Structures are given as structure tokens and as C-alpha cells.
Amino acid sequence: MQRTISFTLNGKPAQVTTDDERMLLWVLREDLGLTGTKFGCGEGHCGACAVLVDREAVRSCALPLKDAAGKQVITIEGLGSGGRLHPIQEAFLKHHAFQCGFCTPGMILNACALLLKTPLPSRDQIVRHMDDHLCRCGPHTRIIAAIEEAAAVMKGGAR
Amino acid sequence: MKPDDLSRRDFLAGPGLLLLLPSAPVEAFQGYPDDFNAYLHIGADGRVACLVGKVELGQGSMTALAQLLADELDVALDSVDMVMGDTGRCPWDMGTFGSLSIRQFGPVLRAAAAEARAVLLQMASERLKTPVEKLHVETGVVTGQGSARVSYAELVQGKRIERRLGRQPVKSPAAFRVAGQSPRRKDAIDKVTGRARYAGDFRLPGLLHARVLRPPAHGAALTSADTSAAERAGAQVVRDGELLAVLHAHRDLADRALALVRARYEPPRPSVDDRTVFDHLLKAAPPGQVVGESGSLAEGERLAAGLIEETYFNSYVAHAALETHSATAVVENGKATVWASTQTPFSLRQQIAQALQFPPENVRVITPYVGGGFGGKSASRQALEAARLARVTGRPVQVVWDRAEEFFYDTFRPAAVVRIRSGLTGAGRIALWDYHVFCAGDREAKQFYDIPHQRTVSSGGWGGGNPAGLHPFAVGPWRAPSVNTNTFARESHIDILAAKAGADPLEFRLRHLSDKRMRRVLEAAARQFGWKPRKRPGGGAGVACAIYLGTYVATMAEVAVDSRTGKARVERVVCAQDQGVVVSPDGSRQQIEGSITMGLGYALSEEVHFRNGEVLERNFDSYEIPRFSWLPRIEAVLIDNPETPASGCGEPPIVTMGAVIANAICDATRARIRRLPMTPERVRQALAVA
Ligand code: FES
Ligand code: FES
User: Fold this and answer.
1) What angle do CA B618, B622, B626 make, to 5 degrees?
2) 3-state helix, strand, coil in chain B (%, to 5)
3) Mind listing the pLDDT tens digit for each residue in A6-38?
4) Chain B hits for A41, Cβ within 8 Å
5) Residue numbers in A near B188 (CB within 8 A)
6) Which homologous superfamily does the CATH classification assign to the domain defined by A2-78?
7) Predicted ipTM of the assembly
8) Which helix (H) or strand (E) holds B113?
9) Does the reported pTM lie above 0.80?
């Protein structure tokens, strides 16, 4: 149904008038021009399209726009503040926890969701939480190290 | 002057020093043509533009090449701007594959930088009235005697200097300051902030997203297509020859419209499936070519106490980069500009020119960041589709394949068979090695162990020249083409022979190796791993080694097998690598880790299933790639070998992964698995007969 959907996007109010059954991924990429959120599989298998919706990592390729109404949506473009990177981004940078970078926005947002819930996760908890996020290039061990470091830097104080 | 030189000239029009390729080919630049293309431009602001036809696929060459350049030119790494894979700006290049970026292109870039430095020093010498030998350069500033100094930027100020590449000597690796270090990757900020743009991220006014109608199977012929419902849904339908596409301003609405097309097909003729394919390959493969031979097989047979014959099998695997093939095309005024995820921008330009019947100089391919390639983006059909549709519609067109298209049109690593006939002397030495590889290709098929009587034969490969219909779909290069199969067969078989000889697998290998570099990587891996020599299996440790285009690699692994489920878990991998000069130690480690991780997939789970031209894999639910929970502890050992020029590091460690895991599984369970991938089902079957 054609409707106007309002939500908070990266801290600012956003409104889109479109078919509200469309998936959030495409509304972000097409209507709102935020291309940091990636299309990797379109069926919820890979996590490249993950964004934060009310502090949870959600696969935007499988989230109809209407389900984002009234929620707080954060994409990779909205992470960090005042021109500074988020500590998780800093840690990914430092550990070179990426290669081609295509999975990276989704990985970072999923890591954010983990630290919001479990500020000092064990290695096991990290692996379990990240396990349904796919990466073909193989920086997995670095991603785990980066999340551990970010957790330590944030001292449990995830925002 | 050709029009594409104009665009390049526009870009580099400002004053500065421009370094051009040699007018006469120099043998070191083999393959690089002598047209007017600039590798370097030093601007009046002191920034150095480095223009290379290579592309950044994630392998880090954007950073490694900049490191080489910064060293040779004596400038700060941060002052180097890399412009990559843009046919309108960069000199020709054959493509980014085969671990060539550093090994083959590195010397060309260094020569350009050395020439630029020599020119600048000459100018500085005149300016500072000091002989060149007395000058000193650091981070782009030339110092003469006393406090007299001048920067590169000042030297080129207001001037336009063009120089052809000559033959200046390059520095020795001992003089490297930037290379050999591990600076922050140049693509790092872009990639952690989501600012990195890939071919599907370009948004142009009036852009249409295209979805192309695909057959259900290779060989299925379209008989009719009713597109009326798609048109009613607001999509534009375009037919251009065999191409039928629906286009819409929104990608997801183009998806919906495509689903409304009613198409009928003539089913393809019945053909092979993933079970019958090996018999087919053995029958249909082209005649064998001898690629290596010494001694006499008859003499080897005479010396052998008995013949040991085995056959090894490898499956089709997909590249499965996370970014699907993507392209954005604009065609106007007889010119085409195409942003494409490709490993071969220059040959793609040629193909697009042919498809549009444009002169090649009217086609510009721009390669932004590429979301993984592994050989799969050497073929770029999607870019041809985007260009054709952009021409027909007169609007910018974007084609981003969905995951099913990605599997359907992938150029898979070919399934392959290897037959080995071998024999041991009574003293436990290999006397005979008769090796025949079918369909994998001959790269590194030749034996490197010391065996007096041997022959290596190869039938067919991944690179073309196969009889039509040999494979039911396209095949092509897949990270370290040929060598995953050849190493799996060779190194599995060496372990079988070691067991027959009652020898420790490591000692047995060393017994047959006089190659010092190979001995050194094996010994380095053994030290790090804590290899315990043994006469009989137990413990789940394996070893495998290989040479890949000049790089030496030895891998050891610890594997635990759940005998009930058949699931093999790799606990630990140690990999020692000798790649000659190491340009970027952390970059090399990233590549080793990535190779080991990706290698877990073809070793344990990845296999393309198919039947009568239909590719049964459509998404990541059935095609399983490695995940976080599969990760072993990875320890990479980089051998310090500055006397040997740099060779590749992005492919070698992946080649040992099949054999090292197979050997470790056999060590743990006595079950020998001769077919990849070693799925739980195959492991259970092998356990049943072990
Ligand atoms: S694109 Fe959404 S999970 Fe893969
Ligand atoms: S870095 Fe390439 S897919 Fe993860």
C-alpha cells in the first residue's frame, strides 16, 4: 500500500512515501541514497544488509518498510558521532578486519548490536553472534579480535 | 591522438611531471604496450597520482603498490593517490589475477618511480647547484649541501614535463622503508564507514535498474514470453537480440515485475549431473599433453616393489564473492562509460566496444572497489548487459545480479579427476610417478619431489580450448586455478606412499626434496606446529606443501573428526610461506588467513550440484561457505627471503587446504578420502571402509 512511513534514521526524522511492503534495504539504497547497506543475497542468509532497528541487528532485505515505522534505524553512515568513528569502526580499522569490505558494514552493525546487549562478550559469544554473517574474504579472526578490542575500549559502556 | 588519450590528458592536464611508458618495449615490461599512458603524475601540490590498470578486490594491492612507489620515489605513503582500473586514465593492463600485481607489475611501477626520481634529482641539482650524488631525498624534499632544499612540488611548479620511461636502476629491498612495513590500508576508512563505492552503488539521474529474464537451465531455449503483466506493473520491457529485460527506477520493483513475466522454454537435452560427471569428463576430456617427464616409466616400474594406483576427484565450486556481478552504464553521444565489478577492465572495454560496435576508444570502463573476485570477475557479462540496455533505453542502466544469477552464470572451478600410478623401492624411495590430470589444468601439475622416473600429463583445463560440451556450464579460473586439484592429489598420494613405506609423512617428504626453499618452509612449519614424527597414524595431524608460481608454502593442520556425524573440525592451521621479498607483512598475513579460511570451504563443504543444465545452488542456504564457527587457530610464518624478488601471496596457501585436511583426517581415523569436498557424508562412508 502507498503510504507515508516515518521513522528515525541515523538520529534524524525521515519520511518516505512509497509502497510500504517494499523492503527497507531498497528504500535505504534507492529512495534515501544510503548505499553503505549492501545487497548480498536478498533472502536473509548473509547479513550484508544488516542495520540497527531499535538497537537490534535486522536484515533490511527482509524487513518491510512498514515494520520500521516509528522505529530508530541506524545504518553504517550513522555510526560514530561528531566526525569521529565509533570504537567498533576504529577497531576494525586497526585490525584490518576486512578485505574487499563488502560485508563490513553489516559486520560492524551486527557487532554493535552484540555490544549493546552484551557489553563484554566472551569469544564464544562473539562467534555465536556473528556466525550467520557471511564473509568470503576470510578476515574472520581479525573481526573477532576487533570486537574484543572494541568491547574493552568501550569498557562495557556501549551506546 | 586518440580520444581516450584526450580524457587522460584532461585528467592530467595540469602542470607537473608525467611519467610515460617506454617508446620501445623493454623486456621487463613484457606485455605492457608502448602507447602514451602515464603511470605517475606528480602535481604542483606535491601529491603523486599513481595510475594502474590493476584493481582492488580486497587483496590490498592498492596499499602494496603505493608502498613500492613511495619507496622508490622517496615520498610519504600518504601523499600517494591510487587511481586503479580506469581504462580512461590508466595504462593498459591484462587483468588482476594470478597473483601478478606485485610479482609482475611491481617491477614496472618501481621502474617508473625510479625514472621520476632521477628526473627530479636532475632538476634539483640544477636548482640547488649541487651534483646529484650529493643530494639527499626524504618524503619528497631534496636536500643539498647545508640547508639548501627544494621539494618535488616546487620543482614541478608551473612546468609541464613529460618523460618516457628509461632504465633507471631501482633500489635494493634493503633500502626499502615503506615497503616491508604494515601501514594502514589505503582503503580502510572508506570500508569501515560505508563510503566505499562498488559498481552497484552509483546513483545517476534517470537511472533504471534492469533485471534480465534467465532460463531455468543452461541449454533451455525460450519459446515464448508474455510480458504484459510486467508492463502493467509499470516496468519498461526491452528486447535486444536474445536479451529480454524489465527495467524500473527501483530495483525491488524491477524484481517484482520480472516475477510477473510468463516465459516458456524448450527444455535442454538431458545431460550429466554431479554424480555422473566424472565418468563423462574421463571420456570427453581432450587428449593428454605431457607437461613434465624424466627418466623412463618402464625403468621406474622395474625398480618398484609394487604399483600403487589411486584416483582423486574434485567438484565444481563457485566463487561466491559477497558482491554479485554489478555494473552501471551510461551510453550517450556514441560513447559508453561503464562502472563494473571486474578483474579485467581492459578486455571488458574491448568486449563492450564489440557489443555496441563502438570504437574501443569510445568506451571507458571504470572499476570502483570490487567486493571480492577470486577469478570469478574475470568474466563480466553483467557489464555487457548494462551497456546494451543503456544504449537501447537511452538512460543510465544498472545491472546487479541476484544470488541465483550469480550461481547460474558463475565460471566455476572445473570438476576434475587425477590418476596416479606410482611405486616405491624396497628402500622406501619413490621410483615411479605417472600422473594424469583431467580437466583441472596443468598449472603446477609437475612433480617437485626428487623422483627418478616420472611423467606428468594434463588433459584439458579451465582456460578454454576444451571440446564443446565438456562442461555443462562455464568454467574458469578460481583462486589458484588448477593447483587446488593438483595439490590435493599429489599431497594425498605422497601421504599414502609414506604410509606404505612406514615413514613419517614429513620425513618422507624431506627424503625426496633437494629444493632448499621447499625444505625451509617445511621445517619452519614443523617448528611452529611442533610436528611429532610418527610411524603410524593417530592424533589428527596433517602436512601438505606446494609451489605456486614461485611462492613456496607448507601447511600443517590439526583436525578432530566426530565419527558419529562424520563432521571434521579443523582446530589449528600453521602455514609457512616463502614469497621472496615481503612488501607488506600484514597484507601478506591477511591473504594467508583469507586463503586458509576460504580453503576450508572447498575442502569441507563447497560443491555445485546440477542436473541437465540446471544449477541447483541458488543461494547461501544450500551452498555453504565457511563461517566464524569453522575457524581454526591460524598461525602464519613468513619466511624472510629478501634475495628473491617478490612473488604472489594471495593464492598460494589455499592450494594445500584440501590435502592437509584429508591427510589429517586420515591420521585421526585411518579413513582416506579421495574426493573433495569432504562432507560429513563422505567422511562417514570412508570411515565405514577404513
Ligand atoms: S542481503 Fe540481506 S541477508 Fe543477505
Ligand atoms: S571482506 Fe570481503 S566479504 Fe567480507
Assistant:
1) 115
2) 35, 25, 40
3) 999 999 999 999 999 999 999 999 999 999 999
4) 403, 619-620
5) 93, 96, 98
6) Beta-grasp domain (3.10.20.30)
7) 0.97
8) helix B105-128
9) yes
